[in-house]
C-alpha cells in the first residue's frame, strides 16, 4: 500500500484551488466537505487522479497528434499561445472566465459541469481587494 500511495502522490499534479475570494477565505464546508488528513494524502477514488489530470493528458495527446500530422512547429506554436494566454489575467479579486484559453482548447462551444454549478462570480464570498493585490505583489 505504501508503494501504491507513493506512486499516486508522485503522479499527481499539485495546484492550489483559488476561488473568487482568493487565499484569504475560510474553509467552505458546503463546497469542499470536512477536512481530513487522509483525504489530502490519498485520492478517495481510483478515478479521482485521472479526472484531476484529464486536461493535461488531453493536451499531451493533442500535442502528440499535431506533431505526427503537421510536424514539431504546430505543438510548439500552440504551447506558446497557451503561455501567452495564461499570463493575461484580471486583478486577483475579479472573476476571469479566461475565454481565450477555452477558444484555444476548443471548449468555447461546450457546456460542462463547471459552467453551470461552479460560477465564482455568483458566489457570496468576496475577498478584500487591497489585501489580495498586496499579496499578489508580494507586499504582505
Automatic annotation (TrEMBL):
Transmembrane segments: none annotated. Keywords: Chaperone. The keyword Chaperone applies. GO terms for cellular component: cytoplasm; nucleus. InterPro entries: Ump1. GO terms for biological process: proteasome assembly. Belongs to the POMP/UMP1 family. PANTHER family: PROTEASOME MATURATION PROTEIN (PTHR12828:SF3), PROTEASOME MATURATION PROTEIN UMP1 (PTHR12828). This is POMP protein. It comes from Rhodinocichla rosea.
Amino acid at each position: 500500500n505504501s508503494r501504491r500511495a507513493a506512486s499516486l502522490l508522485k503522479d499527481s499534479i499539485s495546484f492550489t484551488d483559488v476561488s473568487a475570494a482568493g487565499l484569504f477565505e475560510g474553509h467552505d464546508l458546503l463546497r469542499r466537505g470536512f477536512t481530513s488528513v487522509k483525504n489530502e494524502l490519498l485520492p478517495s477514488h481510483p478515478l479521482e487522479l485521472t479526472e484531476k489530470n484529464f486536461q493535461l493528458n488531453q493536451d499531451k495527446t493533442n500535442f502528440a497528434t499535431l506533431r505526427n500530422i503537421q510536424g514539431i512547429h504546430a505543438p510548439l506554436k500552440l504551447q506558446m499561445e497557451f503561455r501567452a494566454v495564461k499570463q493575461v489575467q484580471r486583478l486577483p479579486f475579479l472573476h476571469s472566465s479566461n475565454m481565450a484559453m477555452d477558444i484555444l482548447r476548443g471548449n468555447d462551444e461546450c457546456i460542462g459541469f463547471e459552467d453551470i454549478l461552479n460560477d465564482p462570480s455568483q458566489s457570496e464570498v468576496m475577498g478584500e481587494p487591497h489585501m489580495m493585490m498586496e499579496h499578489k505583489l508580494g507586499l504582505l
